[in-house]
Recover the amino acids of this structure.
């Protein structure tokens, strides 16, 4: 029987020979599936998923036991799971659900360690004016304290 830690070590070994790929998640499911998610700034190629799957099959073979192995992309509209996903989407429109459940959209401006900055637009009344105008406001969040962050697909 294979462990999540052993799989993680093998995936990292494969990733070292790849340019730009990184591990997002390994999930050992109750229905005897192992789901491995990888990502890349330029997207994930199905051939690379198949290559990683073959690599793992060669390395662990029988140790997989009755598990069904699935290797795939983290998914474009799925919430971010690792800091590298935030880094890859700097400058993109994202949706953030904060720890209190408030949903905000804006441009992912910056990532610094486990912190990120979101630029949103808010209506504010400038001093001496009667009508509100939209202004850019930067808000900083901790990746560990938000419920989710995901890329917003724009079809324009």
């Amino acid at each position: 029987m294979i462990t999540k830690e052993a799989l993680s070590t093998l995936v990292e070994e494969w990733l070292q020979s790849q340019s730009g790929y990184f591990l997002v998640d390994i999930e050992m499911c109750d229905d005897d599936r192992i789901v491995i998610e990888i990502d890349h700034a330029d997207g994930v190629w199905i051939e690379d998923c198949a290559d990683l799957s073959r690599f793992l099959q060669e390395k662990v073979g029988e140790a997989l036991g009755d598990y069904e192995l699935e290797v795939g992309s983290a998914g474009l509209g799925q919430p971010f799971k690792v800091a590298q996903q935030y880094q890859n989407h700097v400058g993109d429109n994202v949706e953030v659900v904060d720890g209190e459940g408030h949903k905000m959209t804006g441009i992912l401006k910056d990532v610094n360690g486990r912190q990120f900055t979101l630029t949103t637009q808010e209506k504010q009344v400038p001093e001496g004016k009667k009508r509100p105008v939209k202004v850019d406001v930067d808000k900083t969040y901790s990746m560990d304290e938000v419920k989710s962050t995901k890329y917003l697909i724009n079809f324009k």
Remarks:
- The chain is about 20% helix and 40% strand.
- Helices lie at 4-16, 46-60, 83-88.
- The mean pLDDT is 92.
